[in-house]
Amino acid sequence: MQSRRMSAADDEGASPSIYHTLLSLYLTPPPPHTANWPPALELLSKHGSRLPAASTLNIIPTTLPVAELESYFQGRIRAANSIVNEARIVSGLRKSEVVAAQAALLLGDGAAGKGGGRNRRVVVSDERVCGVCHKRLGGSVIAVLPDNEIVHYGCLNRRPGGVEGIGMRAGSWSRRN
């Protein structure tokens, strides 16, 4: 994925746009005609950000004062800033999505009957037995499943559906104290 959005104006290898063709006709018309500056400058101020910068500046004669191109450069700068600002907004939205996903993972989604994420707590008493082998949990390493069922960590593979059926991830098991 590119870090910067490419516009049609940045693609130098593409065929010239209608704006580029019109600008070249205004500034370098066929021999019997002379350059028509006012519409060329208006075209540059309104649509200059849509034109490729290198070829546009090559068309503009060196006799034209830079002050006349102020609106063209302002449009280019605004277009570049809008691309940067859009990238910042997208980056901020992605960061907020990551934060929301991490919060849901740690705290749970708040739905009734669901576990409380990875920070949920279960009480393991001496009488509690494994849901698979029906032996006491004792001091064994245990796994807490999303439905708050507790099994021996070694019994996860023998459980109907196996580990894949419960979406086990690293850190979802613990040692009973």
Q: How does this structure look, described?
A:
- The protein has a three-stranded antiparallel sheet with strand order 2-1-3, with no helix packed on it.
- The chain starts with 17 loop residues before the first helix and ends with a strand.
- The protein has four helices and three strands, in the order ααααβββ.
- With 177 residues, the chain is mainly alpha-helical.
- It folds into two domains: 100 residues, no CATH class; 64 residues, no CATH class.
Which labels suit this protein?
single chain; 177 residues; mainly alpha; three-stranded antiparallel beta sheet; 3 strands; rod-shaped; disordered N terminus; disordered C terminus
Task: Assign an overall shape.
Answer: rod-shaped
Tell me the radius of gyration.
Answer: 33 Å
Quick check: average pLDDT? 78
Tally of separate domains: 2
Number of helices: 4
Strand segment tally = 3
Q: Percent of residues in beta strands?
A: 5-15%
Helix/strand class: mainly alpha
Cα(first) to Cα(last) distance is 47 Å
What are the secondary-structure elements, in order, as H or E?
HHHHEEE
Helix content: 25-40%
Q: What's the main sheet like? A: 3 strands, antiparallel
Kindly report the spatial arrangement of strands forming the biggest sheet. Answer: 2-1-3
- Which spans have pLDDT < 50 for at least 5 consecutive residues? 1-9, 169-177
